[in-house]
UniProtKB/TrEMBL annotation:
The keyword Cell membrane applies. It is found in: Cell membrane. GO terms for cellular component: plasma membrane. It comes from Pseudonocardia bannensis. Pfam families: MFS_3 (PF05977). The keyword Chloroplast does not apply. It is a multi-pass membrane protein. Keywords: Cell membrane, Membrane, Transmembrane, Transmembrane helix, Transport. SUPFAM superfamilies: MFS general substrate transporter (SSF103473). This is MFS transporter.
């Protein structure tokens, strides 16, 4: 294969090319189903609360089962587990299509949502570990950044194509196409060349299980700081679907057309952020904190936007920064933790994200109702700026302590993955 630019270096690896193609197809199918499922529930019930309950049913299994899912991912072979979880996702998408075809009941939809969430709990750390095995360690950050671009592209394609197809053929088609998208992932996993994989070690018995993973997480103070920062940024600072809708119908007086414009701008920003992350040779903690500081400050200022165009102009770098934060966070979480603990750490990260999503949406909505959407954005921006500064100070203290301990004797130096220099 001819030489690729550094921003695309992960594509040199044949297994990653399979992974990337499947990721784009799967992301497109997933967002088609998200659109179709939300619209189906809204059509049946006429209630936005019912749509929120569907999202809640999908999130609860992550909070309840995440630790065990991560422990399994660290003990069982990755590719067979990936094939099992993707097959289950395929069957659930088919079941949803059949339910919609023969007359959906909201109870059946809630059941499918909960089962999908349960499968996703086990699928997340497994696919995360498999994604880390299709490229060497030095190219993992680039692979994650390109993955962000593919996910953003899949979201744009899925929502736009889904909107057209839903109007022409109904929601059943969206669910059926999502089932086909899982088939693409299964084919890609089967087609991967075993000799071209970069395997991760399996946890030995003494380091296996939920308790061992919990002890590892509690000992890695740097990782706890990153998770705490990620929780605040995701819950208070990243629920822009709520904020954009509230600003469009409130202070900006832009209506549904304005909301559509802002959604498009946000999607474009996520692609730009992913491309910038892919261009970077290394995604460090310093870069993560800088992006968090800039996006938090912009969020604070966005509440003072006098009109739709001004708000959109501020929203674009916020969206780019959000993807940069996620990519840098994911890279550091994977590279700075012990490889035999990778599944449990990824599961913990997924639990943090699920908790932030479950809390953040209602909280941001409540703030918008009580304070007004513009003031809610400003207050949330102040909170995220403060959280970023606190995280930076905590990480600096940990780094200095690590350097001091390293000078006093090797017996005081933490194991690999704990308290790595901030970079």
């Amino acid at each position: 294969m001819r030489r690729l630019p550094p921003s695309l270096r992960a594509l040199v690896h044949p297994n990653y090319r399979l992974w990337a193609a499947a990721d784009l197809v799967s992301s497109t199918g997933t967002w088609m189903q998200v659109l179709g499922l939300n619209w189906l529930v809204l059509t049946i019930t006429g209630s936005a609360t019912a749509v929120g309950l569907t999202i809640l049913f999908q999130a609860v299994p992550m909070l309840a089962l995440g630790s065990w899912a991560g422990a399994l991912a660290d003990r069982l072979p990755t590719r067979p587990m990936a094939l099992v979880t993707q097959t289950l996702h395929l069957l659930l998408a088919v079941a949803l299509a059949l339910i919609a075809l023969h007359g959906a009941s909201v109870g059946a939809i809630y059941l499918i949502a909960a089962l999908s969430g349960a499968v996703a709990v086990f699928d997340g750390p497994v696919m995360g570990k498999l994604g880390a095995q299709v490229v060497p360690r030095d190219d993992l950050g680039n692979a994650l950044a390109l993955g962000s671009v593919l996910n953003s592209t899949g979201r744009i394609l899925g929502m736009s194509l889904g909107g057209v197809l839903a109007g022409l053929t109904g929601n059943v088609t969206l669910f059926a196409l999502n089932a086909v998208s899982f088939l693409a992932v299964i084919v890609a996993v089967l087609a991967m060349r075993r000799e071209a994989l970069f395997p991760l070690p399996v946890s030995p018995p003494e380091r296996a299980g939920v308790r061992a993973g919990l002890r590892y997480l509690l000992a890695d103070h740097r990782l706890l700081v990153l998770f705490a920062l990620g929780f605040v940024l995701s819950s208070v600072g990243r629920n822009y679907q709520v904020s954009m809708a509230a600003m469009s119908t409130g202070p900006l007086q832009a209506g549904p057309q304005g909301f559509g414009l802002l959604s498009t701008v946000f999607a474009v920003g996520t692609v730009l952020g992913g491309l910038y992350a892919a261009h970077r040779r290394e995604l460090t903690i310093t870069l993560l904190l800088a992006a968090a500081g800039v996006t938090s400050t912009l969020q604070l200022l966005s509440g003072f936007s006098p009109g739709l165009i001004t708000f959109a102009a501020v929203l674009l770098p916020i969206a780019a920064g959000a993807v940069l934060i996620d990519t840098a966070m994911g890279t550091r979480v994977q590279l700075d933790t012990a490889e035999d603990m990778r599944g449990r750490v990824l599961a913990a990260q997924g639990m943090v994200a699920a908790g932030a999503g479950a809390l953040g949406g209602p909280l941001v909505g409540w703030l918008a109702e009580v304070l007004g959407p513009d003031r809610a954005l400003t207050v949330a921006g102040v909170v995220t700026v403060a959280a970023t500064l606190a995280a930076a100070a905590a990480l600096l203290r940990l780094r200095r302590r690590h350097e001091t301990e390293a000078q006093t004797g090797p017996e005081l130096v933490p194991s690999r993955g704990a308290l790595q220099p901030a970079g």
